[in-house]
Amino acid sequence: MHIVIMGCGRVGSTLAHILEDKGHTVAIIDQSPEAFRRLRSGFKGRRITGFGFDRDVIVEAGIESADAFVAVSSGDNSNIISARVARETFGVDNVVARIYDPRRAEVYQRLGIPTVATVRWTADQILRRLLPEGAEPLWRDPTGAVLLAELDSGHLWVGEKVGALEEHADCRVAFLSRMGEALVPERNTVIQDGDIVHIIARADEVERINAAVAARNEEGA
């Protein structure tokens, strides 16, 4: 694949190195030539000075043959404009933009531009390490409406089928973590001792689901 990256900050340079190590070709754009100092000496990709929404600049970066475009500069507006140019003008399907303001994420998502709201994501990651397990979701979509959460299923669900838990709590199990590996279960998959249950649900439903599971545990205690 050929990937064009706008923004040679810490994220952009890290992505460039990882993608190149995986065998992809990379072109990276930044308005400041000094930013390219973050690239290792052996980086083989193209370095283009300019703005990612400038047609001539992204053409020089190979956007016309690009398989993906990533906008990770320090400006929300620059990122979203560049992403839209890549998608709408050059027909690049695989486009991602980093957004600092999570309030904008839903708007851009509706425009068909996948976004990573870094402030919300970073806060979630920190809180997951500060608070008890399950206090913060493992993942949430950019709008915040849907999330992946760890469910405190309790020992009383051991030996029960996943379908029984889903019916009892009216939820959907996304996967199980079993002995350090992820398992996508069937409805008749039996929950084993030590399994960690992960659900996918609307954010406003997680509290109800946890309460339903907890009530079952209390009944059997």
UniProtKB/TrEMBL annotation:
Gene3D superfamilies, A to Z: NAD(P)-binding Rossmann-like Domain, Regulator of K+ conductance, C-terminal domain
Keyword field: Ion transport, NAD, Potassium, Potassium transport, Transport
Pfam families xref list: TrkA_C (PF02080), TrkA_N (PF02254)
Domain RCK C-terminal: 133-215
Domain RCK N-terminal intervals: 1-118
GO cellular component entries: plasma membrane
One MF term in the entry's GO annotations: potassium ion transmembrane transporter activity
The organism's place on the tree of life at top rank: Bacteria
Keyword set includes Transport: yes
InterPro entries noted in UniProt: K_uptake_TrkA (IPR006036), NAD(P)-bd_dom_sf (IPR036291), RCK_C (IPR006037), RCK_C_sf (IPR036721), RCK_N (IPR003148), Trk_Ktr_HKT_K-transport (IPR050721)
The protein, known as: Trk system potassium uptake protein TrkA
Lineage of the organism: Bacteria, Bacillati, Actinomycetota, Actinomycetes, Streptosporangiales
